Amino acid sequence: MRHIKSSIILALVFSVVVPLGQAMAATPTCRGMAATMVGTDGNDRLTGTSRDDVIVAKGGNDVVDGAGGDDTICGGAGDDVISGGNGSDWLSGGDGDDDLDGGPQHDTLKGDAGLDRLRGGTGGDLIRGGDGPDDIVESNRSDRLPEADPEDRFVYQRLTLEPKSGRIGFDLYEYSGPIEVRSASDGLIVVEHVAPETYLLGIDEMPFSWDAAALQAQAIAARTYLANLVAFPRWGLMATYGFDICDTTSCQVYEGAGVIDRTAGDAWRSAVRATAGQILLFEGRPAAALYHAAAGSATRSIQDVWPGSSAVPYLQAVPIDNEGSVYSHWRYVIPRDAFLDILAASGITFEGAVSRVRTEVTPTGGGPYRIKVTTDAGVTALDIEEVRAALNEQGPLLYPALFPAEYAPGKRYPAVAMSPTFTVRTRSSGRVVIEGEGYGHQLGMSQYGAWSMAKAGSSTAEILSHFYRGLTSTADPGFLPDELEVGIGWQWRSVTLVPDGRYKLRGADGLAAKGSGGSFYMLPGGSEVILVP
Q1: Number of folded domains in the chain?
Q2: Residue 170 CB neighbour total at 10 angstroms
Q3: Does residue 178 form part of some domain?
Q4: Where residue 155 falls among pLDDT bands split at 50, 70, 90?
Q5: Helices H / strands E in the chain, number of each
């Protein structure tokens, strides 16, 4: 009895794949050729040989690998995954939603009925999706798609548009480097590949009409900031989306190759070239060369702006003489109820009636300012950044006629509370006075302060040494890479790239297209990029 059971089990095991020589029924065919390997009506895993195989998977959801040789494979009625292997293969998915991968040679792929994914590979392939909307994966320029359905999608792991002449337009700007588009869970990521010195030409952080010494100080500060980012582990947007630096005020404002085409652009080009490769080092590493628009009468120390920060010797408060900016000092008076409404809209409320608001101005090294609100129930202390965020976010929403305030007829400040250096106090009349200095975080170099020093005759070295407490520029010892990945877009629901000259479009498997002019429209597709014809 034991031997009978064993025989039955062995018979079941070996019936999964029936070699042709042992088949009792008529031999199935694929493309008119007798099969050398046949699956069952169940879910099979079939692997070919190094020879030219003819494989028929039949029913079920099968996984088929042709392995070596020039194989001919027919999938059948299920949802099959078919890989041709290293030869020049002919693959047919049959009915069902199939996944076909031809491999590196010149293959023929037929999706047939169903929602199929067809990837020809790096060779020149013949691809027919068949009925229904199919995904054509990593199609390259040498592929032929004679029966493409209007509903078929062309999907890629990533796409890179390389300008061979001219520039590439994206959003509002033009770029000279290759533009790569890849996908994330929250949309498309757009990255320019560019050399560091070319990147610096696209920085838009200081008016190009300013004095040369100020422009050169800005160039060295921007280059140092970049070197600091790439020398240390990625954080923030860079860590999330996988590029070296972003193009907004969260990093440095970068607007591509068209920046130096503007009025006085040659002055900025000269500043970048005159300081080529120069950065600021601190203890052998690139300094965190922070900079901001204006500081007022003095910059701030890092531990007084960013809570929890340790003191950094070159990011300590320094005085500024006659900064000369409309942002250097700002003041406005508003009803107390308006101030309390703004706080309440940000979730900051108090027990009892508010009788007084004042600001605890800390000494240098004493940490950020604090706002203290006195009510019938006592005194509540608020972080200055908490109040600043409330003013900037809720002020313009609740009181658009008041915020941001005007500094001249028809000209408004860029924000309500423009820096962490401001005070809030109540008057006996029931109104609130908000008064502050500067625009930005006030750490490191004040750009208006640098301009003021340059106009007074200070050199680039003197400007940098003043704002970065004794640091002097030196040649980069090797922190900057040959090529940067600059994030110029993320969380995009669609992307249009417009080359104005000759181009090559590449996918992960090779050249997808080349030509001149036109445009490319792309959509996110999960972890892939969809190229819309």
Answers
A1: 4
A2: 21
A3: no
A4: confident
A5: 9, 41
In which domain, by residue range, is 14 found? 2-155
Judge whether 499 and 175 are in contact, CB under 8 Å. Answer: no
Peptide bond into 420 cis (omega under 30): no
Alpha carbons 308 and 312: distance in angstroms, whole number = 12
Q: How many residues does the chain have?
A: 533
The DSSP 8-state label assigned to residue 123 in this structure reads S
Residue-wise pLDDT tens digits, 388-419 = 999 999 999 999 999 999 999 999 999 999 99
Q: What is the pLDDT of residues 79-88, one digit of tens each?
A: 989 888 888 8
| Cβ pair 76, 110 in contact under 8 A | no
Query: Counting Cβ atoms within 10 Å, is residue 92 exposed (0-12), middle (13-18) or buried (19+)?
Result: buried
- Do residues 136 and 509 lie in contact, with contact meaning Cβ atoms separated by under 8 Å? no
94 and 143 share a domain?
yes
312 shares its domain with 460: yes
Tokens of 524: 């996110």
**Can you say whether the dihedral through the CA atoms of 27, 29, 35, 40 is positive or negative?**
negative
Find all residues with CB under 8 Å of 104, minimum gap 6, and list them.
Answer: 86, 121, 122, 123
Q: What is the pTM of this model?
A: 0.83
Query: At 445, phi and psi to the nearest 5?
Result: -85, 125
Look up residue 523 and give its two tokens.
Answer: 């959509």
